[in-house]
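Internal tracking record. Fields below are filled automatically when a chain is submitted to the structure queue. Please do not edit lines marked as system-generated. If the sequence contains nonstandard residues, flag them in the REMARKS field before resubmitting.
Queue: standard
Priority: normal
Entity type: single polypeptide chain
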Amino acid sequence: MKTLNYLQAVAVCTVYSNDNSAYVPQMWAQESLAILEENMVAANLVHRDFSPLIASYGDTVNTRRPSKFTAIRKTGTENVTDQDAVATNVPVVLDQLFHVTFVIYDAEASKSFKDLVTEYMRPAMLAHAQAIDKVVLGQVSNFMGNSYGTLNGLTVNNAIDGILGTREIMNRNLAYVDGRNLILTPSTETTLLNLPIFTQANQVGDQGQALANAYIGRKYGFGTYMSQHMSSVAVTPTVDATYRTNAAAAAGATTLALKTGTTLFDNNTWFTVAGSGVPHRVVTGGQSTATSITFTPALSGAVLDSAVVTFTVPGAVELTAGYAAGYNKEIIVDGLTVAPKIGQLVSFSNTANSPVYTIINVSTYAGPSYGLTLDRSLSVAVADEDEVNLSPMGEYNFAFHKNAIALVTRPMELPRQGIGAASANVNYNGLSVRVVMTYDGKAQGTRVTLDILAGIKTLDTNLGAVFVA
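SYSTEM-GENERATED OUTPUT FOLLOWS
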């Protein structure tokens, strides 16, 4: 286990009068940060932005998108041409406030710091690590325009083609070659591990525990990992497969002619079509007799006349008041005969090109209705009865360069002294954790809160792609 030393930590703390080392919040913060970092996978592979400036939930801060330069040819006597060396400011809202709170009862107060770490801190920080990785991997929804592969069609015979096709998309988009990573779903990893090249020994090096355990090796230009939190939809949502194409269409097309099917569908509906392996969303042509639609992304393969077109049947938002832009708790939905899945992509309303999110948690209620927690706050408002459009069944593996995504963290204000709270912020390697300890006389124990304030932002969609399988 990595342990941060005091020179690496920037901390302010107030300690209890008995100075029991098991309850020094700075020690808790240092150890919790070490546990967090060694148990994250995706969050250790993206750009991390940190500043020691105190921030609050909802604040907007700026991270930087690095400049790109062009080599300019000149003669021996010409002057050089200056290029801007200023990175672009990218605003990021700090709307990811995660906390884990628990009480250490008086009967357990005599336990050593080591025992308390094992019983309380490690499980708490594992929960934090999983939550942050889900948020980072949820950014896959922003890269669906760069998709390659065949949903539900992965075999040992075409697996390498899928990876190479994903690599080609990134190459064509001029993504940096050095520093690319590929995060696989468990199902995709299982298929790939049947290939000798993916079972050859690799030197992991000095990486954290989760990275070491998840690392498969550097394959085809990607540092390759498996994450249990990568988007995997193992159950088919309710679909309408009664539509057929009314003409052939070539790979690269963004328009399809359709023979009328059973149910009208709206813009923003997800669909698949035989011949093109990637999922698509309707842009125009919904809410009509559906004789022609435009969609995104373009067809990945040629489509024949009378090819089967399968639309995902939407549900609906269930809240009279709707949800405002910036909302980031559960969104209640109903009208779905198949429960949404963690990792499934979702978009709302019948407005073309509406934002796409990733579901990171699902709760089930009577009805049945479902509570969806998304990877980030709503960027636009969602109204009551807006359609809930879910992505098709399949595996959504994520390839990206470090600079494609920024994870931004900031320290938070510490409780003022004199109110019975012991607290500390510890900042290290682009991460910040706050620990607050208070004694609860009613509960007869010490309440401990471990919290993290962060924001997530896609910086450049040209630096990533999705390998669907």
